[in-house]
Amino acid sequence: MNNYQKIADLIFPGGISVDEILKKYPPRKLKQGQEVTRFAPSPTGYMHIGNFFPAFISYNLAKQSDGIFYLRFEDTDSKREIKEAKDVIYEVLQKFDVFPDEYQTLDGIDVGNYGPYVQSQRAEIYRAFAKKLVSEGKAFPCFCKKTEGKEDVLQARQTKFDEDDEKEYDPCRDLSFEEIKSHIDNGEKFAIRLKTKNDGSQRIKFFDLIKGEIEAKANSKDFVLLKNDGIPPYAFAHAIDDTLMGSTIVVRGEEYISSTPMHIELFEALGFKPTCYCHNPLIWKIDESGSKRKISKRKDPEADMRFYFSQGYPKEAVLEYLLNLINSGFEIWRKNNPEEDWRQYHFGIKDITTVAPVFDLVKLNDISKNIISQIRGENLYQMWLEWAKEYDKELSQILDSDKEKFVKLCVMERDDKPKPRKDIYNLKMIKEYFSYAFERPKLENLAEKQNFVDFIKAYLASFVMPTSNEEWFEHIKQVAAQNGYAVDNKLYKQNPEAFKGNIAKACLFARQAITGQDNGPSLYYIIDALGQAETLRRLKIAAELKI
């Protein structure tokens, strides 16, 4: 037994072996072209759009290849972990219908053969690989009080190395067996660090699936593999887990590019084939001042994926907008395939944008308007009701108590229309859009109050509940003509002083009296939804306004 093996047995007595672990995680049996991708969030907060973006890319790459998409929680930062974060992640994935094939349920049951799918439950695996690296002289125990960047470590480095030396070797890397044993006998805690083979002068090249070949300075740090509590940071854990779980592509944000040389050295030390990285660009935002910045969880409510639920955006709208950010070709595909499900759109890694996309809420709203306009009224009502049950209890009770009225409102100028109205882009705004269905108009600040009251009196006196849009319009034209309004726009333009207004003015007065609004869907459909009794009540109130 050599000295490294003695040290390994001293600091890691017993435990499962690497050979046993490799038997437990055999390579996946994949068909040619199948991809295995993963979403590996840290449960340290809400689901950020910057996390969901690579997860959505990963989901599509797996599904388009008939592959596997799995969820792995990287919960090694216990100090920052938030108890409810896992619940939020599951909720977001389920509501957006991009749920993984393999994962661990909230009650701790693994679905899949490559679990546990939670890193905190894989401690013995990391310990076994750390022990192997120590036994091979590739890693060592570090007894410094803290790991990276603390004063005792920095002072030791400055003492041991010249200030101009680019190496960041740790002062504990050359401790003898006896010195290590003495530290352990004194009850001192230790971390495990990789003993880098580089001295700061080397350059390496690695291939990114989006950006192509990248050249960078090789790692020259003795970085941490296991913290002094036995928990690994991201670098060590992901190298082991992505290998054992058979990830074929790892999609992650481009902020990880700078640490990729460190990860590549780690793969080589472990004897693993480096994973194929796909570093997606980060999402940016143009703020009020016109400056470009990364979308922020502190400044931008739309950074939280729950924002889209609370506002009532259809999941298809959000996903289609993200597909636009991933690849601009989606917009052309959608134009040519208006009826197809978005899942029919396939993109390859080379199609993923290399330029940082800019989040544009106006663009999302336009996509959402188009999608909502194609939803049949009965279905839109049901979506609105289900949304209200979760986010507006009082509204849900109102919707439930008068279904016929609200279904009619949702149907109007929508079902079977060649050009349905595109006024609504989320469910939350429908209540304001249909505000006249919840309260009678206040009729304030009328521009032509005398003409308004006179016309409404005449309209009320001859009002008959219409049975079609055409019948309603013919009737209001008759009332308008009898009360000094032009029903022929050519005549009105030739001599406007001869009339109180045109037919558009008469229709506006009727709309204001019934809805309090200046525009909207054809008034016939609103009258039909409100019913005869309520329409007459509103016309009577308007006709009795004091001049």
Tally of extended strands?
16
Distance between the termini: 105 Å
Strand fraction: 5-15%
**Helix percentage:** 40-55%
Second rung of CATH, namely the architecture of the largest domain:
3-Layer(aba) Sandwich
Radius of gyration: 33 Å
The name CATH uses for the topology of the largest domain is Rossmann fold
Overall structural class, as computed from helix and strand content, comes to: mainly alpha
Q: What's the shape?
A: elongated
- Low-confidence sequence ranges: 147-165
Name of the CATH class of the largest domain: Alpha Beta
Description of the molecule:
With 547 residues, the protein is mainly alpha-helical. The chain folds into four domains: 3-14 and 123-280, Rossmann fold, CATH 3.40.50; 288-373, Glutamyl-trna Synthetase, Domain 2 (Glutamyl-tRNA Synthetase, domain 2, Orthogonal Bundle); 377-433, no CATH class; 449-543, Arc Repressor Mutant, subunit A. Helices cover 44% and strands 10% of the residues. It is built from 23 helices and 16 strands. It is elongated.
